[in-house]
Amino acid sequence: MPVTLQSIKAKLDAKLGQKLMVVAQAGRKKVTKRRGTLKETYPAVFVVDLDQEENSFERVSYSYTDVLTKNIEIAFDEE
């Protein structure tokens, strides 16, 4: 993954509308995996529309800082 916030945003801008999986650290040894579609990017955050079969809520947002600090990992389906 890129090493600056601008490069992370640019990479995600190029992948709008694609399916992805987000693996987020939820505690000491706990992770949450969420599958969805990259919907929108904003200056500080990006929005993922979640698959309704797997999740109880509609969308979730993450900051680019989460990606930079490796609090979340993003894997697109074609990778």
UniProtKB/TrEMBL annotation:
It comes from the Bacteria. Pfam families: VEG (PF06257). InterPro entries: Protein_Veg (IPR009366). One of its GO terms (biological process) is regulation of DNA-templated transcription. This is Veg protein. It comes from Furfurilactobacillus rossiae DSM 15814. The lineage of its organism: Bacteria, Bacillati, Bacillota, Bacilli, Lactobacillales.
